[in-house]
Amino acid sequence: MNKIQQLIKNFISIFYPRSCVACGNALMQNESHFCLSCLMHLPETNYHLMENSPLDYIFMGRVPVEKVSSLLFYKKGNKVQHILHALKYKGNKEVGRFLGELYGRQLLKSPYYRSVDCIIPIPLHPKKMRMRGYNQSEWIAMGLTRSMSIPYFTDVLLRSEFTETQTKKSRFSRWENVKSVFTTVETEKIRDKHVLLCDDVLTTGATMESAITQLLKIEGVRVSVATLACAN
Ligand SMILES: [Zn+2]
Q1: Second label for 206, Cα 20 to 30 Å away, from 59, 91, 163, 171?
Q2: How far is ligand 1, taken at its centre, from the CA of residue 34, in Å?
Q3: CATH code for the domain of 162
């Protein structure tokens, strides 16, 4: 950045101060997305380093997966909720890429994720995509791609039907609701590959399970999961 650009940036920040996604405090010039304090104290799970984390049991008896991890603990009212809200509803897609890149650097140090060949973000329904203008999971995938140096594909796993909001349904009916939502095309791209499926948050795993089921129909595919957050 040259001096004039820096000057303009400083000038703009007087009127539009950048603030920390997690706590809302004003950011210093050298900080991006998070203030140093929040960045240092993100509630990380470190599940990617554990042989048996609680998340490894989430798909047990449902669908076979290699490894399941989340970067952060999500709790109602905690800073992670602010982050997810900014990512999904306030147009802050860049924070998804930022955290994806940060997570990718950590996953490279995990023995379970070392053999991952490519990344697939959970697709949004086209209608939601039009409403939001972007798929937050794709921005996470972009970040993962940067630090893990492997490609991500958005043209293999597709979403077709519109699913109504799932918040007030039982686990069983949720599964019923999403079971045939995904289809796969251009499957040769991931044949015999270890696929990293990514999303913003993992709750019951119903949507994820449906996507994994579709991907496992492709010859030789193995699936691992990484999300930005999981319920604590
Ligand atoms: Zn902060």
Answers
A1: 91
A2: 5
A3: 3.40.50.2020
